[in-house]
Design goal:
This protein is mainly alpha-helical and 197 residues long. The chain is 79% helix and 0% strand. It contains ten helices and no strands. The longest helix has 30 residues.
């Protein structure tokens, strides 16, 4: 049924449009694939497209939130990171692919890209390569690793998911509280907690 694949799309979109680390989108893909016995490749394709659209929307609205929450100096600091990333060209694209392949939350990557006002076209293609590859592996093996949808739900809250959430919060914290301009230009490590408006 087509509506079940629409659920995969919507679920993946919702998991990846939020501006805070949440469970990875592949968990909803595996859950719905097992629950409705869906075609695994259609689940992967539909889920990855939903996930990418969610991240795209996140990069569009996060600058507005950042402008209201953080002082101009912090926003300029993160925009400086964006300019440095753009100047690195293909090396930055390889970093985005590699990061997307790791079992780490990609929310901090897209918060940084949005705050840095990077155009989504700069980050999405590399993210697609990493996301499609990693989600294909995780959904394929997740199908065989979870005997049932109930088993999968019980496995969502475990030490790995808690560790992933903590790493995501830590990465967002490093983005926000490190003075990146001082670190990149002067090689000085400084923390700045006065970032709020």
């Amino acid at each position: 049924m087509w509506w079940q694949y629409l659920l995969v799309f919507i679920g993946s979109f919702l998991f990846d449009v939020v501006p805070f680390p949440s469970p990875p989108a592949f968990t909803i893909m595996v859950f719905l694939q097992i629950m409705y016995d869906l075609n695994i490749w259609l689940v992967i394709f539909t889920g990855v497209i939903g996930s990418i659209l969610g991240r795209y929307v996140l990069t569009l609205y996060i600058p507005k939130i950042a402008g209201k929450l953080f002082n101009p100096a912090k926003n300029e600091d993160v925009q400086y990171i964006g300019r440095v990333m753009k100047s690195k060209g293909w090396k930055s694209q390889l970093v985005i692919i590699a990061y997307s392949l790791l079992p780490l939350p990609t929310t901090p990557l897209f918060i940084a890209a949005g705050m840095a006002r990077l155009r989504p076209i700069y980050i999405i293609p590399a993210f697609f390569v990493g996301k499609f590859t990693s989600d294909s592996i995780l959904v394929y093996f997740g199908k065989y690793g979870a005997k049932s949808a109930e088993n999968l739900l019980q496995g969502v809250i475990n030490w790995q998911s808690i560790l992933s959430l903590l790493i995501g919060v830590f990465l967002v914290g490093t983005l926000l509280f490190i003075d990146w301009r001082a670190l990149i230009q002067k090689k000085e490590f400084k923390l700045n907690f006065r970032i709020w408006k």
